[in-house]
Each structure stands twice: as structure tokens, then as C-alpha cells.
Design brief:
Elements: H1 2-11, E1 16-17, E2 39-41, H2 46-59, E3 63-66, E4 82-85, E5 92-96, E6 101-105, H3 110-118, E7 122-123, H4 136-142, H5 149-152, E8 159-165, E9 171-174, H6 187-191, E10 200-207, E11 209-210, E12 214-222, H7 225-239, E13 243-250, H8 251-260, E14 274-282, H9 285-288, H10 297-311, E15 317-320, H11 324-335, H12 337-341, E16 348-353, H13 359-373, E17 378-384, E18 389-395, H14 401-417, H15 433-439, H16 442-455
Helix pairs in contact: 1-2, 13-14
Length: 469
């Protein structure tokens, strides 16, 4: 109780939640890691975060930062410990249209930043299904990805500078808007992707980009994944690297989508094995300005390329969006992926990356191996094909922890053999700690442990996450 009173003195009694008021913060989006926080503190600025952290350091109190709580790896599980919610720190302090940057606080919701940038003809190109509740701080802490990584990079590539409150309570100002700064170690990138285990990101300087004046969006069916990559490479060459998204939805995904959302129209009249959602963004007026007949050049260009490939037998079918409603319908199929994946238990859900030209190899190898482990298991695949990131889910026939771990190890084996990564964009949290122990280079793990101990000697920052015990 003295701790609660001290916290109330820092942020106000109304911003220290306990009991039933704190319970909702312990419910993550997937519902796999429920917890009951000891209390939830809602600071208004970095000075209050600093004061809370100093108190935590003095009392040895464990801290779990939380933003929109839309993670998928259990990174905000906070049983019996203190949570710091950054929801009140939600100011977009400045948008610099000349430098194409934004200065924001960590509690800014992504969709709010999208709207603010769009109002001045710019875009913050970090898009994924949870953008209406996910916050900047969480995206930075997990180095989130999404559907536009192909053109713009993940969150790390979109960040110029950050402000961090360290476990000691010290505030480290790295709020640089510079694109080049070789002044010593790159501490910014150390905290991005650390999932709150080294400190709390409270603000950031983010890169903005010109908002495309027009989009060309299409659903395309191709015979094989190799030909899908051929399509991607042709489009990149023809558009000067303007492909924004290249999403793979195989036949099994489309069938599951139809099962749970029969109201959605099928992508094609006839089912296909390899279905691609492709989107090209045009920023140049010459590519985006409709002609006298109302045709948009970038849309016509995409249609011409697809027609040529159809004549060559490299494309089996294609539908090009001719309106915003048709574009939204195409994207709806992809953005329902999390819902139709996580609505069945038990599940072994993998977020992996392999070289672009090995995606087919992964699916072939794991497809051959799984029946030897569980003949009744089902699978579901959806992928950011343009950057090699697959979301591969296995639905085993029985919910036995050893059985699930055996399947997880089989996936890891294939990924490792192909030179891939067991974590592409969702982070480590709790769910991949055992994989970290099995698969991460031991020297790298030792270095990470040394960094953790140096910055957080008491181990109070998001304890039990990321690093193996």
C-alpha cells in the first residue's frame, strides 16, 4: 500500500488503477496470456515515467510497459507486477512536411498518425490489422512489420530518433531527426525491438513518406510460387520499385476464409492454388492523374503487365480493382488473417522468415514432415511474400504441450535449414523463449544477457520476457 500511495502522489490517484480496474490491462488480444497486474500506472509525460521508474528502482518493483496490448507473443503478461500504460502520452507534437518527419509520443495510436500524415499529403507507412488500437511505443518495442515492409521497411527503418526512460529513471534523449549520425554506438536500434526489457520508449521521431496519389490493386492467380516471384520482380522493374504490398493467400487460406466469412465474394470464379494480392503506389502525377477517359495510368500499366503475363501462361487469372470499394474488398480478405487463424485451438502459430526463393521449399518440406508427427493436423498459411515472412499455423489433433513443442521444433528445423528466422515481426515475448534457447547463437544470447544486466541490473524491466531463463 505505501507503494500505491507513492505512485498516486506522482501521477494522481485517478491514474493508478488496481483490482477490477486493472484487470482489462492484463487481457492481451489473443487471450493466451491472461494476468492480473498489481496496479496500472498511467503517466502523462516522460517526467512522470521517470519518477515512477526511480520509485520502482528504489523498491525493486518489476515493471511491464503496455501500449495497445495487441501483441501476439505474450510480451505484456504482468501477473502481480506493476504495469505502465502510455495511453495518456498520445500527442502528435509536430509534423514537419519539409523534412517529412513526425515527432510523436509513444501512446499515439497508429491510425491517428495515419490520419494526421494524410491530412498534409504524407503517409506513415506502417500498416497492419490492429492499427486502430496499436500504439507507436508498442510498434517500436516489437519492431513491428505489416504489409508495406516490402517498400518502406519495418518500424526500425521508419524511425529516426527516440526518447527512452531507463530502468534507473534516467531519461535518455536520442530524439534526433538526422538521417546520418555516426556518433558512437547506435543506441536507438538497441531499444527498438527490445520489447521493453531495457527501458521504456516514451517518444519518437518518425519518417514520413509521400502519400501515393493513386493505387493499382489486383488479385492475381499464378501457377507456382516461383512464378509469383517472377511477377514481383517484373512489377518492381516496371514501376521503379513502387510495389507496396505482395501478399500470398493460398487455396487453403481462401477456403478457410469462405468458411468463416461466407459473405465475402470469392477472389475468382474458379479456385486457384497461388493467390496474390498486389498493390502498386504511384506518387508521380503522370502515373496517378486520370486521362480523358477516366483511366488511371498506374492502374492501366498494372493491367497491361498482367495481360502480357497471362498471354505467356505465367498468370492464370487476375482482377484489377476499379474503385476504392473493390480495393477495400481485396484488402478485407487479407486483413481477416489473424481472426481466422486464431479462432481455433490448439494452435502452433509461427511467424517466420526465409529467403524469398525458399518459401516454396519451406512449405514442401514442412508439408512432408508434419504427417509423420500428426497425421490429422491441419495447417494454414498466409504470407508477406515480398519480404519472405510467413505466418504458418498448425492446428494439431491433440492439445498436449509436448506434442505442440515437437511440432514447433519441426517448423524450427526446416526454417533453420533454409537459413531463416523463427521470429519475423511479432517479437519473442513469452511464446518464443524456448525457441530462443534452442536456436539463437549462444554467443549472441550471452551478449544480450550482458546488455540486459548492464542496463537493468535488478532485472525489473519486463521480467521473464525475450531472454531464456
Amino acid at each position: 500500500m505505501p507503494l500505491i500511495a507513492d505512485l498516486q502522489a506522482i501521477v494522481g490517484a485517478q491514474n493508478v488503477l488496481t483490482g477490477a480496474d486493472a484487470t482489462p490491462y492484463g487481457q492481451d488480444w489473443i487471450g493466451k496470456y491472461p494476468s492480473q497486474p498489481r496496479a496500472v500506472v498511467r503517466p502523462a509525460d516522460s517526467a512522470e515515467v521517470s519518477a515512477v521508474m526511480k520509485l520502482a528502482a528504489q523498491t525493486g518493483t518489476a515493471i511491464v510497459p503496455v501500449s495497445g496490448n495487441t501483441g501476439l507473443a505474450g510480451g505484456t503478461c504482468a501477473e502481480g507486477v506493476l504495469m505502465i500504460s502510455l495511453a495518456r502520452m498520445n500527442a502528435i507534437r509536430k509534423i514537419n512536411t519539409s523534412a517529412r518527419s513526425a515527432v510523436v509520443e509513444a501512446g499515439v495510436i497508429l491510425s491517428d498518425l495515419h490520419a494526421a500524415a494524410e491530412a498534409v499529403g504524407l503517409t506513415f507507412p506502417l500498416f497492419f490489422g490492429a492499427r486502430g488500437s496499436a500504439m507507436v511505443g508498442g510498434a517500436l518495442s516489437t519492431n513491428a512489420g505489416g504489409s508495406n515492409v516490402l517498400r518502406y521497411g519495418n518500424t526500425r527503418a521508419l524511425c529516426l530518433g527516440i526518447e527512452v526512460v531507463l530502468p534507473s529513471g534516467q531519461v535518455m534523449n536520442l530524439m534526433s531527426a538526422l538521417h546520418k549520425d555516426n556518433a558512437g554506438y547506435d543506441l536507438r536500434d538497441l531499444f527498438i525491438g527490445a520489447e521493453g526489457t531495457l527501458g521504456i520508449i516514451t517518444a519518437a521521431v518518425l519518417k514520413l513518406h509521400p502519400k501515393p496519389r493513386a493505387y493499382a490493386t489486383a488479385m492475381v492467380a499464378v501457377p507456382t510460387l516461383d512464378q509469383a516471384l517472377d511477377l514481383l520482380n517484373r512489377l518492381q522493374e516496371a514501376t521503379g520499385g513502387a510495389v507496396e504490398a505482395f501478399e500470398y493467400m493460398p487455396r487453403g487460406y481462401m477456403e478457410r476464409l469462405k468458411k468463416f466469412h461466407p459473405e465475402l465474394r470469392p477472389a475468382f470464379d474458379v479456385p486457384h492454388d497461388v493467390n496474390i494480392l498486389v498493390e502498386v503506389g504511384a506518387t508521380a502525377p503522370r502515373d496517378a492523374t486520370p486521362g480523358p477517359d477516366g483511366a488511371v495510368p498506374v492502374v492501366e500499366h498494372l493491367q497491361d503487365i498482367l495481360a502480357q503475363m497471362f498471354d505467356q501462361g505465367l498468370v492464370q487469372d487476375a482482377a484489377v480493382a476499379r474503385s476504392q470499394a473493390q480495393r477495400a474488398e481485396m484488402w478485407a480478405r487479407r486483413e481477416l488473417a489473424a481472426e481466422i487463424t486464431l479462432n481455433q485451438l490448439p494452435i502452433v502459430d509461427s511467424d517466420i522468415a526465409v529467403p524469398l526463393d525458399r518459401i516454396g521449399d519451406f512449405l514442401e518440406r514442412i508439408g512432408a514432415r508434419l504427417p509423420t508427427l500428426d497425421g490429422a493436423a491441419e495447417t494454414l498459411t498466409v504470407a508477406h511474400l515480398g519480404d519472405g515472412n510467413l505466418h504458418f499455423a498448425v492446428f494439431p489433433s491433440r492439445d498436449d504441450p509436448m506434442h505442440l513443442d515437437m511440432i514447433r521444433e519441426a517448423v524450427e528445423d526446416v526454417v533453420a535449414d533454409l537459413g531463416g528466422s523463427f521470429s519475423a515481426e511479432h517479437g519473442i515475448g513469452l511464446s518464443k523463449k524456448s525457441t530462443m534457447a534452442r536456436r539463437k547463437d549462444p554467443v549472441a544470447l550471452a551478449v544480450m544477457g550482458q546488455i540486459k544486466k548492464a542496463l537493468d541490473p535488478q532485472g525489473i524491466m519486463n521480467p521473464g520476457k525475450v531472454l531464456p531463463d
